[in-house]
């Protein structure tokens, strides 16, 4: 690690001692980001028993105070009201400047902090394609997409080069949050420290350029890529970008209009602990070629049996995920308005998984309830965040309900859906997925 500190000293000059003070302290920056698809910051503040202090990195980002040990078990976390995210990690999506209606690719997406931030900004309009190359991590990504109630995402497990080749020229905006040596995570993650070496940095930089060269294929003319890392090394940040721009002169660095952190390469931003977060680098690149609309993909949607629509209307009101249904095997999906129909890209989810066809019935899926507002469900029960009922539900237990409730019923915490059950005779049979239940 001696070498790491020497390099940080030459990077930071007079500020090195300030960096060391942070480095040697036991305190970390911890943060949460409000999921505006399901909750507002004002509402979350009323429901939490600590004060939310804004970070400089995004309007939805707040610091978790030191004395708060764990909020991952809060019913509000289960409900997807917020995502626990290191404060400076929210900076890259701010620089992507996502607008509702955009087609956005998040190429290195697991566990999903930045993807779910993009989804909030899309506000269910347009498309988010969230890809992760490591299968086990892609499953965690999917679980977070479900928890945060994202309706307009494709989640895939594919090699970046294969995916971007198949989706050539399709996306308006692409995020490359590249795998890196993780120097910004050293204070929290001793494994990243143990792996540190100059050779590792160089091999990360080689892989990062490869990923950027894949990403550029999927970008339309005039589109934008944001490249980010959570490391400080120049090789993986300025070095990668300088080499990429040399090989791809049609790209240039663009001002993203943010003021957090400090500048580098004129418009890139660097964040150190002295700036209020553990550490990040992000830069916005514009492809300066003629605007070309994305290629169209023909969706051959098969005919849907009437009983599937009947099931949809029996459980939800006014088809909150639209009318474009697709059945693949036992799964019924509600597709976003526009979706490239691509085979061979390891797609794990398209739109909302509405339900599963069993022998002689259809059972709704957790994803559908997580993506619905209570008033969009035919039945719902609502409990306070501090109630015994919600605690019982998250443990997987049955709960007592009004005897008038029958059939599939959303379970909400302060009007935020957090799962479902099936009611009969005054009891709600628990359908909260076993892997998500609170253990003790
Ligand atoms: N964007 C994520 C978030 O905000 O939650 C964090 C992404 S993490 C920094 C980088 C991701 O890239 C990891 O999930 C890792 O598995 C993935 N990865 C590893 N090797 C890769 C490769 N060769 N190409 C693309 N992604 C890779």
Your description of this structure?
It is a single chain. The protein is of the alpha+beta class and 440 residues long. It folds into 3 domains: 2-287, 3-Layer(aba) Sandwich (Rossmann fold); 300-334 and 342-372, no CATH class; 376-440, Roll (Archaeosine Trna-guanine Transglycosylase, Chain: A, domain 4), CATH 2.30.130. The chain has helices spanning 2-12, 16-24, 41-47, 75-78, 91-96, 113-122, 135-147, 160-166, 190-194, 198-215, 235-247, 306-315, 366-371, 388-394, and strands at residues 31-34, 53-54, 61-63, 82-84, 103-106, 127-131, 153-156, 171-177, 219-229, 251-254, 262-264, 268-271, 280-287, 325-328, 331-334, 347-350, 352-357, 362-364, 380-383, 399-400, 407-413, 416-424, 427-430. Strands 5, 6, 7, 8, 9, 10, 11, 12, 13 and 16 form a 10-stranded mixed sheet that branches. It has a 5-stranded mixed sheet with strand order 19-21-22-23-20. The chain has a 4-stranded antiparallel sheet with strand order 2-3-1-4, covered by helices on one side. A hairpin with a 2-residue loop joins strand 22 and strand 23. The longest helix is centred in the middle third of the chain and has 18 residues, at 198-215. The protein starts with a helix and ends in a 10-residue tail after the last strand. Bound molecules: S-adenosylmethionine (SAM). The site of S-adenosylmethionine has 17 residues, from helix 6 and helix 10. S-adenosylmethionine binds next to helix 6 and helix 10.
